Write a sequence for this structure.
């Protein structure tokens, strides 16, 4: 029998029981749609997180004083005083691929304005910090290298600090604040960056020159960290290795001594987060795959019922010259048509639902060809797998028994 | 009985079913020949072996022993696949329960056997199916579904289906078992006409003596053997019987 005839017979049989066909296919439609939507949600979440990280700058490398490596004596980061401004200069001058660099020294202080005060992070930084963080200013300007050199008492406020000290959306440029009883001139306000995907609120801080923190606020000569950004396409691993070698040499560490600093990048962090969301995606997809499996079992169930119910039909077909192979093919193709039609509708439904979800969540729409092909392929495989047993059962029927079946 | 051209030649046919460890003999050595153009009724009580013989004659099953020549060819040792082809081309079946596909038009039901044989173009299938339905007097109901047809009409669709591949042999298994008296006579009339006009060989299984008398020859089975094999002396004619039946009904 030609494949086309087999197909026509299968479609005719499915149409004879349209309602049942629709309900059976529904199991698979939901399964396929669920896989696609779950993968789309997972991908959407991942790309949303990746966007946030990119926003923070994936090419940003942080060198922190102190080591968290497992030496015989573990020192907490920040308690080490060996990271010096000269190290920062050396990195900037000697390591290729470093674009911007900002030495850092932080402290937490009470900031007092005329009518309000607020306890916040005072971040000492270099003049290049906005370039590293791709941060722009809402009002005023950032401090200059000259301010850094002079340890000028100038401050750039995060928007949260501005809101607390001067009221929301105000422009306090030129106003005066006091930090540790010393007057600072407000020269700018940073644009709102929002809560970071990790860590504290990036808007709840005051940025001042790092030299000012060292000399006027803490009375130290060392740095707590160095933040730098690399040029595009420069691999983090190479920069990290070079910084490590350079600093170890400068700090005169012997081979068996642990690093007294830590080099980290956001890229590293990003890959951890990405792999977390990938795991999440797989989790969601495998839950959805269960419903796909249940849909497949639904098909097998209905096909088994159908074979029993149509025993006399099978007997008749055998008596008018159908070979067992013809019967096998008929039921297999029926299951296949059922699952492929269900799969196709499921793909459409899944795409529609994914677009709906991404619209609501403000995510980019992320129906991937992989998810579509995978779930559709699964649907087809399920059709063959779960259709085969009932079909073989039908083909194995004895024509005489089948004809007599009541 | 003409001896010159046997369509069915059966010699020492034996069929034994094995149920568990018990062997149940259904046929204990049957020899019979049916010539082309004959109209034979197989009778006998249930368990007599007439149905088993019918299944073997219809190539639905293979004998335990003995030979079966159909249309000059030994079919008793063919494979399942070859038997399917024989059923498709040489044999037409009519059943007690009609066995039509539900929610499928009469025409499509009749076209069915052509799907399992050598490829026939859709147009030609349709033409042949229409012709077969015309032959049983159902040309006006080609688009009707079985549930829109009476029992007699359904059985006529089934007869058209059995005829559509122009088989040499028509096997009817209790074809009037589900029909009322008048419709039974009508259906027997169709068989008689097909036998007379087209010389189609018909083998009919029935346990009703009066239905058997529409055939020209009665073969009676008992306990897996042929007990009697006689020509019918006073053969019934369906046209006359129908007149008589209607007259009696009117009188009553």
């Amino acid at each position: 029998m030609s494949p086309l005839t087999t197909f026509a017979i299968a479609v005719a049989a499915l149409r004879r029981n349209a309602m049942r066909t629709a309900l059976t296919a529904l199991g698979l439609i939901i399964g396929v749609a669920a896989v696609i939507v779950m993968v789309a949600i997972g991908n959407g979440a991942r790309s949303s997180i990746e966007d946030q990280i990119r926003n923070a700058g994936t090419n940003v490398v942080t060198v922190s004083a102190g080591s968290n490596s497992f030496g015989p004596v573990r020192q907490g980061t920040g308690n080490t005083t060996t990271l010096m401004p000269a190290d920062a200069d050396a990195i900037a001058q000697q390591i290729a691929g470093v674009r911007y660099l900002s030495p850092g020294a932080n402290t937490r202080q009470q900031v007092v304005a005329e009518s309000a005060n607020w306890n916040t992070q005072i971040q000492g930084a270099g003049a290049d910090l906005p370039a590293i963080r791709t941060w722009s200013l809402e009002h005023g300007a950032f401090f200059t290298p000259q301010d850094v050199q002079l340890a000028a008492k100038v401050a750039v406020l995060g928007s949260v600090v501005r809101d607390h000290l001067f009221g929301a959306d105000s422009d306090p440029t030129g106003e005066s604040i006091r930090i540790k009883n010393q007057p600072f001139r407000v020269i700018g306000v940073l644009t709102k960056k929002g809560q970071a995907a990790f860590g504290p609120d990036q808007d709840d801080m005051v940025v001042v020159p790092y030299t000012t923190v060292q000399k006027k606020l803490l009375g130290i000569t060392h740095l707590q960290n160095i933040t730098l950004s690399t040029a595009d396409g420069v691999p983090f691993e190479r920069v990290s290795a070079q910084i490590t070698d350079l600093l170890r040499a400068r700090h005169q560490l012997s081979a068996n001594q642990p690093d007294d600093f830590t080099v980290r990048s956001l890229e590293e962090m990003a890959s951890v987060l990405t792999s977390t969301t990938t795991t999440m995606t797989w989790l969601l997809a495998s839950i959805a795959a269960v419903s796909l499996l249940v849909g497949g079992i639904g098909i097998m169930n209905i096909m088994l019922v159908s074979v029993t119910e149509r025993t006399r039909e099978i007997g008749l077909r055998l008596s008018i010259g159908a070979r067992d192979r013809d019967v096998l093919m008929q039921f297999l193709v029926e299951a296949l048509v059922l699952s492929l039609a269900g799969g196709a509708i499921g793909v459409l439904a899944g795409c529609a639902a994914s677009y709906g979800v991404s619209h609501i969540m403000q995510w980019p729409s992320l129906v991937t060809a992989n998810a579509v092909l995978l779930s559709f392929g699964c649907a087809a495989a399920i059709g063959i797998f779960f259709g085969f047993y009932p079909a073989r059962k039908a083909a194995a029927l004895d024509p005489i028994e089948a004809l007599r079946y009541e | 009985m003409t001896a010159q051209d046997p369509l069915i030649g059966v010699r020492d046919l034996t069929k034994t079913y094995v149920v568990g460890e018990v062997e149940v003999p259904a046929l204990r050595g049957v020899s019979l020949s049916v010539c082309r153009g004959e109209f034979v009724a197989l009778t006998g009580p249930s368990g007599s072996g007439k149905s088993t013989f019918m299944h073997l004659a219809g190539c639905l099953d293979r004998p335990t022993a003995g030979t079966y020549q159909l249309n000059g060819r030994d079919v008793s040792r063919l494979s399942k696949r070859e038997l399917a082809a024989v059923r498709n081309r040489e044999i037409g079946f009519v059943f007690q329960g009609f066995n039509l596909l539900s929610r499928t038009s009469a025409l499509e039901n009749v076209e069915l056997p052509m799907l399992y044989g050598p490829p026939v173009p859709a147009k030609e299938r349709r033409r042949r199916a229409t012709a077969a339905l015309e032959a049983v007097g159902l040309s006006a109901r080609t688009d009707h579904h079985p549930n829109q047809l009476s029992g007699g009409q359904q059985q006529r669709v089934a007869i058209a289906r059995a005829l559509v591949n122009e088989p040499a042999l028509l096997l009817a298994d209790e074809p009037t078992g589900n029909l009322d008296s008048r419709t039974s006579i009508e259906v027997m009339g169709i068989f008689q006409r097909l036998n007379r006009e087209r010389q189609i060989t018909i083998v009919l299984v029935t346990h009703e003596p009066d239905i058997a008398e529409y055939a020209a020859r009665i073969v009676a089975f008992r306990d897996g053997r042929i007990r009697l094999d006689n020509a019918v002396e006073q053969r019934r004619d369906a046209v006359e019987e129908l007149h008589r039946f209607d007259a009696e009904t009117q009188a009553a």
The mean pLDDT of chain B is 93. The helical segments of chain B are 50-57, 80-90, 106-115, 122-135, 151-163, 181-198, 209-212, 238-251.
